[in-house]
UniProtKB/TrEMBL annotation:
It comes from the Eukaryota. This is Uncharacterized protein. SUPFAM superfamilies: Molybdopterin synthase subunit MoaE (SSF54690). One of its GO terms (biological process) is Mo-molybdopterin cofactor biosynthetic process.
Length: 148
């Protein structure tokens, strides 16, 4: 199997994701870990809370990973893992890893996958601030559906 995707409420394990994508033909492993930062637009962030429609999100992540493999032929394996629930500051909420014969195509593929996950996956977040406020943020696909 060359694609692994998962939605979990448990802390993410970068070693597990990186070990999954290792491949003997790969000259590069590309890894992205998206973490909760402590500020957004001047407000102190205390956490992000993610919600997902797991069955749909898994299917969307599998589609994105398979599209990436077709678009970037030197990519051997891809893993996309997203966390749900509360994700504290400096903690990963999403991990994308892949192995590629060449690093340049690997970097391009990783960026492409991240943007597609942000645009299409049925995953939403609530950003919580130190002042007690919060903002619900939808992905691009949700925003398009809400406007139609």
């Amino acid at each position: 199997m060359s694609v692994f995707v998962n939605i979990t409420d448990k802390p993410l394990d970068s070693a597990e994701v990186l070990n999954y994508v290792r491949h003997p033909h790969a000259g590069a492993i590309v890894y992205f870990g998206g973490t909760t930062r402590n500020a957004f637009e001047g407000k102190e962030v205390v956490s992000l809370a993610y919600e997902a429609h797991p069955r749909l999100a898994i299917k969307t992540l599998e589609t994105i990973a398979n599209e990436a493999k077709a678009r970037f032929p030197s990519v051997h394996k891809i893993a996309i893992v997203h966390r749900t629930g509360v994700v504290p500051v400096a903690t990963e909420s999403v991990m994308i890893a892949l192995s590629s014969t060449h690093r340049k195509e690997g970097w391009l593929c990783g960026e492409w996958v991240l943007e597609k996950v942000k645009e299409r996956a049925e995953i939403w977040k609530i950003e919580k601030y130190a002042d007690g406020g919060s903002v619900y943020k939808e992905n691009e696909a949700s925003n398009v559906l809400a406007r139609t």
